[in-house]
Amino acid sequence: MIPPAYQRAIEILVTVFPPPTLLLIGAHAVNAWTPDERHSRVTHDIDFFADCPPEQLQETARRLQELGYTVRIKEGQSDDPVPLYLALSAPDLPPVDILIATREYERDFIRNGTSVDNFPVPIADIHDLLVMEIKANSEIDRLDIRQLLTTATAAIDLDTLMARANQLCTPAELIVLRELIDSGGAGPRPDHSHLHLH
Fold first, then answer.
1. 5-19 as b/e, with b when 16 or more CB fall inside 10 Å?
2. Distance (Å, whole) CA 164 – CA 53
3. Which of 104, 134, 135, 151 has its CA 20 to 30 A from that of 167?
4. What local confidence, expressed as pLDDT, does residue 2 receive?
């Protein structure tokens, strides 16, 4: 069951970013793909990708503020891993980071989202999620990758994963991914029957 504050946050986001413009990513998406709740990663914030034209960001921020969030627009360089995102905070709501899709493959991530019963926002496809995590490549991201490779093996198709990774990852990122796969035991058969949010 989703806690009330998280439910309210998601309602706000769906109001401002109508489907299909929003995608759940990060630890909550990793947890959704993890069949055993004992392996879920504890996290307080919620991470999303959103398809929002940059020229509409000020209006989007204003709408989010009207609904209770303080919004900071963070802009980097075009070649930054995350060149544009919104950081949302509120005293009675969970913090939210919304990465704005600025590249076509990020919009593909959103289009590839997987629907979950009784949850209004698609979650990242597991193969896309693994690619996102390897591209971010922090220690926490590598832990998330290991978690998915060891606990969500039935949902991972290695051919699909490597095809997407070969398109989007650098050679150095591919080496790290292959090392994690070799140590993680991912299986060949996709199976979404266990997909849930917790």
1. ebebbbebbeebbee
2. 25
3. 151
4. 77
- The predicted model scores a pTM of 0.88
Distance CA 95, CA 110 (A): 21
119-146 average pLDDT score: 93
Please give the domain boundaries of the chain with CATH numbers for all domains. Answer: 4-184 (3.30.460.40)
User: Average model confidence (pLDDT) for the chain?
Assistant: 88
Is residue 150 over pLDDT 70? yes
Angle 104-130-72 from CA coordinates, rounded to 5°: 60
Give one DSSP letter per residue of 48-62, joined into a string.
EEE---GGGHHHHHH
At residue 127, the pLDDT reads: 97
* Residue 100 scores a pLDDT above 80: yes
Cα 2 off chain centre by: 17
By the 8 A CB rule, do 157 and 186 touch?
Answer: no
Judged against a pLDDT cut of 50, whether residue 32 lies above it is answered with: yes
Q: Report the alpha-carbon distance of residue 187 to residue 113 in Å, rounded.
A: 21
3-state secondary structure of 99: strand
Phi then psi for 52, rounded to 5 degrees?
-140, 120
Rounded to 5 degrees, what are φ and ψ at 168?
A: -115, -15
